[in-house]
Design brief:
Shape: elongated
Strand content: 5-15%
Number of helices: 1
Distance between the termini: 89 Å
Helix content: 40-55%
Order of helices and strands: HEE
Largest sheet: 2 strands, antiparallel
Strand order of the largest sheet: 1-2
Number of strands: 2
Length: 77
C-alpha cells in the first residue's frame, strides 16, 4: 500500500505542476498586451585598441600613442 500512496502523490505533484505551467503560459500573453513594450536604450559600443609595450620603458600603451605618458619616458611627446 505505501507504494500506491507514493505513486498517487507523485502523480498529483506532476498534475499540479502541469496545471500551474498552463496557467502561467495563458496569463503571460494577456499581461504583455496590457503594457506596451518600451524600447531599451543601447549603450554605445566602445572601440578597443591593441596595446603594445613602450620601446623604452615597457609600459603597455595604445598603438596610436607616441609615448607612454610617464614623465621619465625617454620617447618624445
Amino acid at each position: 500500500m505505501p507504494g500506491l500512496v507514493k505513486l498517487l502523490i507523485v502523480v498529483l505533484i506532476i498534475g499540479a505542476a502541469w496545471y500551474i505551467m498552463r496557467w502561467f503560459n495563458r496569463v503571460h500573453p494577456q499581461m504583455a498586451q496590457r503594457r506596451p513594450a518600451q524600447p531599451r536604450a543601447r549603450k554605445p559600443m566602445i572601440e578597443a585598441e591593441d596595446l603594445v609595450p613602450c620601446r623604452a620603458c615597457g609600459t603597455y600603451m595604445p598603438v596610436s600613442a607616441r609615448n607612454c605618458g610617464k614623465p621619465a619616458c625617454p620617447l618624445p611627446r
